[in-house]
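Cross-posting from the chemistry board since nobody answered there.

I work mostly on the small-molecule side, so proteins are not my area. We synthesized zinc ion and want a rough idea of how it might sit in this target. Sequence and SMILES are below. Is it possible to get a predicted 3D structure of the two together?
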Amino acid sequence: MLNYEMGDTVALKKGHPCGENKWEILRTGADIKLKCLGCDRQIWLTRIEFEKRVRKILVEDKWISIVNYKGREAEK
Ligand SMILES: [Zn+2]
């Protein structure tokens, strides 16, 4: 299982209808709470749904494909 943390910024398979595709993780656990950074709308996804939809994660201003992401510690 990948190590997502509160405060991480991710891109999903599909962006929000407002046009933005940057989401901040507000809560992790069995369900994941995300905030759209375009319009501040908050949504809940189940972890399974989240892991199906997430594509990239922003680490120090670089987008990393989730396939290559091993957790924040591994990027240091
Ligand atoms: Zn939005």
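Reply from a structural biologist on the board:
Welcome over. Reading the output above for you: The two ends are 19 Å apart (CA to CA). The helical segments are 47-53. Happy to explain the token format if needed.
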